[in-house]
C-alpha cells in the first residue's frame, strides 16, 4: 500500500454558459513515505488544483486522494501547504504566526514550555530564530518564505505541500532556500510534493518528477526517476551525466507538449 495514493483523481469546474472545464482527468500516482516529488507542467495545466486536492482545499470531482489508507476530503494539519506568496498574518509576529499552527496541533499534547521550544526549534531550522519578534512586513521575501516553511514544519505534517514556494524570489535566495529544503528533507525525512516551473529545481530536489500533460483534461504524462545520490551539490551536479540526462528528459517533455499545443491551435 502506498503512503499517498492519487487514485484516478479528476477535477471539473463549472464554466460560463453551463459548460464544464475539465481541468484534471484520471490522475494516478503512488507516493512513498519520505519521497520528494516535483510536479511540473505548463502554466494553467492544473498543478495547483492537484496540490489543492491533496491538501483537501479543493474537492475531487472523480476518484480520490488516499493518505495512509484514509480518504482526504477536507483540509487538515497532517497536510501543510506553503504557497508562492507567503500567507503569514501581517499583524502577528513571526513567533506568533508559527505559534498559531503549533497551538492547533500540540495545544493538548505539549506543555507551554515545550511548545515554546518547539516553535524556536522550527524557526532555528530555517535560520529565522533571530527574527522571532519581527512582523512579516519587516522581512524580505526569502525570509517570509522561510517562516512559511517553519510554520508548516512545526505542525509536523505527514505531507509538506509546496506550491511554487520560491517562484517570486531572486536566483540566489532561491538557491539558498532550495538547499534549506534539501537539508530539512534529509534531516526529517518528510514526504514532500513541490510544484515548480523550474526544470533545474525539479531535478535538483526530487526523487521523482511528475510531468503533467497540457490541459484541458490534464493527466500524468511521464514520471521520471532522478537517480542522483544525496546530499546533492548544485555545482558538482551541473555537469553530472545523470543530471544532464534528467534535465533533458524534462525539457523534451515540456517542449514537445508545447509544440503540440501550438500545432493544435
Ligand atoms: N476555483 C476555480 N474555479 C474555476 N476554475 C478554476 C479554479 N481554480 C482553477 N481553475 C482553472 O483550472 C485550471 C488550472 O489552474 P491551476 O491554477 O491548477 O493551474 P497551474 O498549472 O497551477 O497554473 P500555473 O502554473 O499558471 O500556476 C485553469 O484553467 C484555471 O482557470
Automatic annotation (TrEMBL):
SMART domains per the UniProt record, alphabetical: AAA
Keyword annotations of the record: ATP-binding, Cell membrane, Membrane, Nucleotide-binding, Transport
InterPro entries xref list: AAA+_ATPase, ABC_transporter-like_ATP-bd, ABC_transporter-like_CS, ABC_transporter_ATP-bind, NO3_transporter_ATP-bd-like, P-loop_NTPase
CDD domains: ABC_NrtD_SsuB_transporters
UniProt domain ABC transporter: residue ranges: 4-239
Superkingdom of source: Bacteria
Main location: membrane
Gene Ontology molecular function terms on file: ATP binding; ATP hydrolysis activity; nitrate transmembrane transporter activity
Keyword Ligase: no
One cellular-component annotation, GO: plasma membrane
Intracellular or extracellular location(s): Cell membrane
Membrane-protein topology: Peripheral membrane protein
A Pfam family this chain is assigned to: ABC_tran
NCBIfam families: ntrCD
PANTHER family: NITRATE ABC TRANSPORTER ATP-BINDING PROTEIN, TAURINE IMPORT ATP-BINDING PROTEIN-RELATED
Name of the featured protein: Nitrate/nitrite transport system ATP-binding protein
Organism of this sequence: Paracoccus tibetensis
Amino acid at each position: 500500500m502506498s503512503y499517498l495514493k492519487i487514485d484516478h483523481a479528476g477535477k471539473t469546474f463549472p464554466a460560463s454558459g453551463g459548460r464544464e472545464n475539465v481541468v484534471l482527468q484520471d490522475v494516478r500516482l503512488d507516493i512513498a513515505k519520505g519521497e520528494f516529488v516535483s510536479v511540473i507542467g505548463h502554466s494553467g495545466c492544473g498543478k495547483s488544483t492537484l496540490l489543492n486536492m491533496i491538501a483537501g482545499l479543493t474537492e475531487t470531482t472523480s476518484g480520490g486522494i488516499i493518505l495512509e489508507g484514509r480518504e482526504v476530503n477536507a483540509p487538515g494539519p497532517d497536510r501543510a501547504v506553503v504557497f508562492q506568496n507567503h500567507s503569514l498574518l501581517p499583524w502577528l509576529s513571526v513567533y506568533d504566526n508559527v505559534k498559531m499552527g503549533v497551538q492547533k496541533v500540540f495545544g493538548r499534547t505539549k506543555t507551554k514550555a515545550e511548545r515554546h521550544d518547539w516553535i524556536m526549534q522550527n524557526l532555528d531550522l530555517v535560520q529565522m530564530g533571530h527574527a522571532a519578534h519581527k512582523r512579516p512586513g519587516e522581512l524580505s521575501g526569502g525570509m517570509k518564505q522561510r517562516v512559511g516553511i517553519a510554520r508548516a514544519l512545526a505542525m509536523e505534517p505527514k505531507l509538506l505541500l509546496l506550491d511554487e514556494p520560491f517562484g517570486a524570489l531572486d536566483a540566489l535566495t532561491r538557491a539558498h532556500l532550495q538547499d534549506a529544503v534539501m537539508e530539512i528533507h534529509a534531516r526529517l525525512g518528510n514526504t514532500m510534493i513541490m510544484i515548480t516551473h523550474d526544470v533545474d529545481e525539479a531535478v535538483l530536489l526530487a526523487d521523482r518528477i511528475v510531468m503533467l500533460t497540457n490541459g484541458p483534461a490534464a493527466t500524468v504524462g511521464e514520471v521520471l526517476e532522478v537517480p542522483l545520490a544525496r546530499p546533492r551539490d548544485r555545482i558538482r551536479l551541473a555537469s553530472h551525466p545523470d543530471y544532464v540526462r534528467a534535465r533533458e528528459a524534462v525539457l523534451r517533455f515540456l517542449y514537445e507538449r508545447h509544440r503540440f499545443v501550438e500545432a493544435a491551435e
